[in-house]
Amino acid sequence: MKTPVNVAVTGAAGQISYSLLFRLASGEVFGNDQPIILRLLEVTPALHRLNGVVMELNDCAYHLLQGIVPTDDALVAFDKVDYVFLVGAKPRGPGMKRNDLLECNAEIFSAQGKALNAVANPNVKVLITGNPANTNALITQRNAPDLDPKCFSAMSMLDHNRGIGLLAEKCNARAEDVRNMIVWGNHSESQYPDLTHATVKGVSALSLVNDEWVANEFVPTVQHRGAKVIEERGGLSSAASAANAAVCQMRSWTIGTAKSDWSDWISMAVISDGSYGIEKGLFYSFPVKVSPEGEVTIIQDLERSEFSRQCMLETEQELKIERDAIAHLL
Ligand code: NAD
Ligand code: LMR
Q1: pTM above 0.90, yes or no
Q2: 266 within domain boundaries
Q3: Beta bridge partners of 152
Q4: Which of 30, 46, 56, 64 has its CB surrounded by the most CB atoms within 10 Å?
Q5: Residue 286 sits in the same domain as residue 248
Q6: What range does the domain containing 219 cover?
Q7: Which of 107, 135, 154 is the last residue of a domain?
Q8: Rounded to the nearest 10 degrees, what angle do helices 157-170 and 219-232 cross at?
Q9: How close is the Cα of 22 to the center of ligand 2, in Å?
Q10: Co-location of 107 and 230 in the same domain
């Protein structure tokens, strides 16, 4: 039997966690021979709700689940932790933009960054889901100066999967037939879902769909999908699909893209090293490959049209504005 890994999830009594925790405990992310200890962080008033979730986890009798630590103390939740899902944050409601959440959520991530810095395993992998995810990742990383910036990523896989789903549907194909999807930039309406390099059953996607569909349907549908889900779900934001994206991103980050369902590349918001001219230090979604050891490499030298360059700059610009708005927390 392997030594258990410590996995922390914040917002553990919330919507996303209600799907995510059960998938973690079943072995979907770290493998069906890898025992785990779940360290579950909530705010104090939600500890009762969290207790209900802990009861249900126990009632599943998962063989891999070797311990559960429910707590309202980040230093306990993150103690020697190997993997962290930072989910706990306020979700937006109808009519809001994700960066309207910056004011109420930003402080959560500065506090949790400090706690990670103090007690996490130095090789920890931290996936930020709480919105606005990219800027919250920046806040977390900057408040954890002793950890390698590569320990942090923000979630782009929901947008990546949305793009795959839409293209597959349009081409009457299956999700697994679609390769080389890219989402550039911010997890917001300014993101740029890019089909330039995508293929369907090995054929260029752009030869199968027309420019009008790409510009007027594909791009805006992916950009606004989160808001549309909120509208259709009567005010609740995506939860099961968000948990699924967290599973996909952490699994690929852990076992490497070659062995994952996305053997080409995945989209992942990581700290920019200046690739494609994107300002260093911003958390920007790039197409990346991950080695079996978990080393993330941004795919280089992809051709970009003038339209793509412009879209990539616009989403970068929004990230700079968000960063400047929370400069006091960096
Ligand atoms: P939710 O309201 O159902 O759950 C959030 C939970 O976080 C609550 O139980 C709350 O008590 C808890 N929480 C708040 N502050 C906390 C803190 N400081 N420490 C620990 N827990 C805390 O919300 P949800 O639907 O689970 O969504 C969570 C976040 O994820 C939201 O910000 C939402 O917008 C975001 N989200 C992001 C993506 C993405 O693709 N990046 C997708 C879906 C949702
Ligand atoms: C999503 O993309 O579904 C989430 O970020 C939730 C939201 O507010 O859109």
Answers
A1: yes
A2: yes
A3: 126
A4: 30
A5: yes
A6: 157-325
A7: 154
A8: 110
A9: 21
A10: no
Structure tokens at 169: 């549907």
Residue-wise pLDDT tens digits, 292-330? 999 999 999 999 999 999 999 999 999 999 999 999 899
Q: How does pLDDT run across 62-120, given as a tens digit for each residue? A: 999 999 999 999 999 999 999 999 999 999 888 888 888 888 899 999 999 999 999 99
Ligand 1 neighbours by CB, cut-off 6 Å:
10-11, 13-16, 41-43, 46, 87-92, 108, 129-131, 133, 155, 158, 187, 237-239, 242, 245
Based on the domain organization, do 144 and 244 belong to the same domain?
A: no
Q: Copy the structure tokens of residue 207.
A: 């030869």
Give the end of a domain, one of 154, 183, 215: 154
For the purposes of burial, counting CB atoms within 10 Å of the CB of 90, is it exposed (0-12), middle (13-18) or buried (19 or more)?
middle
| SS3 call for 106 | helix
Q: Supply 155's token pair.
A: 């979630």
Output the six-digit token pair for 297: 């490499």
Q: Among this protein's residues, is 187 annotated catalytic?
A: yes
If one residue of 16, 19, 92 were mutated to test the ligand 2 pocket, choosing by the most ligand atoms within 8 A of its CB, it would be: 92
In a domain, 96, yes or no: yes
- Please state the length of the chain: 330
